[in-house]
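Listing S7. Sequence submitted for prediction.
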Amino acid sequence: SQLTVGAIHRLVTGLPEGFDVAAALEPFFQMDRVDGVSKAAPPLAVVTPEGAWRLTPRDPDAHTLDSSRVAAALEGFPDHTLVYQHGRGTVVGAVAEGRADAAFLLRPATVAQIAETGRSGVRMPPKTTFFWPKPRTGIVFRPVDD
């Protein structure tokens, strides 16, 4: 099967009670409230117990990767725990069930973005890519002519 690149979303826990996630993101993103987060052509989005917002970067030239944009915004958050998780339903469910304060839904990095980042010498934030299928482990190659 063909190699695909998926997104790894971010779950934020441990924020102080009453912390306004949407207000903290305003300097970085234009926030457009949405009724729900579509599975088709998913946008960069954040989901909190208060609702969901599509995030449009205010400075589109600052970073090209969603993971970099979110990492920059999270630097201004108070102490928190960040968990990486693939599966949109899983992260949205964690917020709905009260197990997370916010879920950032990222778009998968494109092959062009990965190549551009590699050529620039800049390191990608942790868990920017989720490659599938995973290579099998435990396979050993030996020369046949021995």
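Caption to Listing S7: primary sequence and predicted structure tokens for the chain studied. The mean pLDDT is 81. Helices lie at 21-25, 66-74, 88-96, 111-120.
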